[in-house]
Write a structure and sequence with these properties.
- The chain is an alpha/beta fold and about 325 residues long.
- The chain has helices spanning about 5-15, 15-30, 45-60, 75-80, 145-155, 165-175, 185-195, 205-210, 215-225, 240-250, 295-300, 320-330; strands spanning about 30-35, 65, 95-100, 120-125, 135, 230, 235-240, 270-275, 285-290, 305, 310-315.
- Helix 5 runs antiparallel to helix 6 (about 165-175).
Length: about 325
C-alpha cells in the first residue's frame, strides 16, 4: 500500500514530528503494550483501539499486545473482537500504555493504564488534563482513527497495512464523522479514507455490519417516532426512562442508537436522545446531542459533558433539568 503521501498527511506529520517520532520509538522499544480507550465505547474508541492493535501485531508479531476495557453491548462481537481479560499481575511488568480517543482520567475504561512505564495519548477531543508521558491531540480531526492513521502513515519504516487493521480504522472514522457528514470532515479525512480503502477493505461488508438491525429494533424506532418532541426552535428529542427500556428490551448504552433518525428532517436543527441510567455509582440521564450546523459542545460542557461541534454528550441528574437543557439548545438557534 505504500506510496507517496498526500500533502495533508505530510503536513500533519510535520506538525507532530517530534511526538510521532517518540511514539514510533516507544512502540519499537516495548515488548509489552496495552491499548486503552474510554468507557461506554463507540465506533471510534473500539475501532481505533483494535486498528492499532492489529497494526502493531502485523508489524511486530513477537510483541505482547493487549486491548482492555468494557465490551460493547451490540458491537461486540458483531463488529469488533472481544476485549482481553487480563489479571492485575500482567501490569506489574513494565509496559507501554497507549490511550485512544479519550483525554479525561475518569472516562478511561481501565484504570490500570496508570501502571504504564510510559503513557501515550492519541485523541481528537479537547484536552482535559495531563495523563501521559506525552499526548498527541488534534481537535480538528473528525475521529481519533483519522489522527492515528495519519500518524502511523508518517512513520518512517516499511510497515504492513492489513485488511483487518484498515477495516477497524475505517469503521472508527466513519462511525464518528457520520459517514463524512459532520463539519470536521475535510480533505485530510478523505485522504485517510483513500489509504484505508486501498488496503482492500469491503465497504459493502463494513456498512452492512455497522447498520444491521433486528426486527425487534423496529419496535424501538416505532416508540421513538410516536413519542419524540420538538421545541419551538427545532430541537428534537426523545426520552427513554428505565421502564421504557425494560419494555423495549434495550440497555442504557443502546438508548442513543436512534438519535440520527432526525438528522435530515426539515425544521429540526438539533436532535437529542435522553436515556435514564440507573447505575448506582452515577444515576443520571445520559444525553447524546447532534446538529447539522450549530455548535453544541458549549451546551454539552455546561451540562456535565463535552465533545465536538456537531456531536456531543451531556447529562442531567433529573428530568426537572430537561427544560433548562432544551432552552439552552434553543438559545443557539437564530
Amino acid at each position: 500500500m505504500m506510496k507517496k503521501l498526500e500533502k495533508e498527511i505530510l503536513e500533519l506529520g510535520k506538525r507532530f514530528k517530534r511526538e510521532n517520532q517518540t511514539f514510533e520509538k516507544l512502540v519499537r522499544q516495548y515488548d509489552r503494550i496495552a491499548i486503552f480507550r474510554h468507557i461506554m465505547p463507540d465506533y471510534d474508541a473500539l475501532g481505533t483501539q483494535l486498528g492499532l492493535y492489529h497494526f502493531i501485531k502485523d508489524n511486530f508479531p513477537n510483541k505482547e499486545v493487549i486491548v482492555v476495557g468494557d465490551n460493547h453491548v451490540t458491537f461486540t462481537p458483531r463488529l469488533f473482537q472481544e476485549m482481553d481479560k487480563v489479571n492485575d499481575s500482567w501490569f506489574d511488568t513494565p509496559f507501554l500504555a497507549i490511550i485512544c480517543d479519550v483525554g479525561a482520567k475518569k472516562r478511561i475504561a481501565d484504570p490500570r493504564f496508570e501502571k504504564g512505564e510510559k503513557i501515550v495519548v492519541v485523541d481528537h477531543h479537547p484536552k482535559v488534563e495531563d495523563l501521559a508521558t506525552f499526548d498527541i491531540t488534534d481537535t480538528t480531526k473528525s475521529a481519533a482513527a483519522e489522527l492515528m492513521v495519519s500518524l502511523l502513515l508518517n512513520w518512517k519504516g516499511k510497515y504492513v497495512w492489513s485488511k483487518e487493521s484498515a477495516t477497524n480504522f475505517y469503521i472508527a472514522m466513519v462511525g464518528d464523522n457520520g459517514r463524512f457528514q459532520y463539519s470536521s470532515t475535510n480533505s485530510h479525512t478523505f485522504k485517510i479514507a483513500s489509504h484505508l480503502i486501498g488496503c482492500g477493505i469491503s465497504l459493502n461488508e463494513i456498512y452492512g455490519a455497522m447498520y444491521l438491525k433486528n426486527i425487534d429494533d423496529l419496535k424501538v424506532t416505532a416508540y421513538i417516532l410516536n413519542n419524540f418532541k420538538v421545541s419551538p426552535q427545532g430541537v428534537a428529542y426523545y426520552v427513554l426512562d428505565e421502564k421504557v427500556q425494560q419494555e423495549l428490551q434495550i440497555t442504557t448504552e443502546r438508548g442513543k442508537e436512534n438519535v440520527n433518525l432526525f438528522s435530515n428532517i426539515k425544521g429540526i436543527n438539533i436532535w437529542c436522545s435522553i436515556t435514564q441510567d440507573t447505575d448506582p455509582k452515577e444515576p443520571c440521564w445520559r444525553i447524546s446531542i447532534r446538529s447539522r450546523e450549530y455548535v453544541i459542545n458549549g451546551v454539552a460542557t455546561q451540562f456535565g459533558g463535552g465533545g465536538h461541534a456537531q456531536a456531543s454528550g451531556a447529562k442531567i441528574n433529573t428530568l426537572d433539568e430537561l427544560p433548562e437543557f432544551i432552552a439552552a439548545l434553543d438559545a443557539l438557534i437564530d
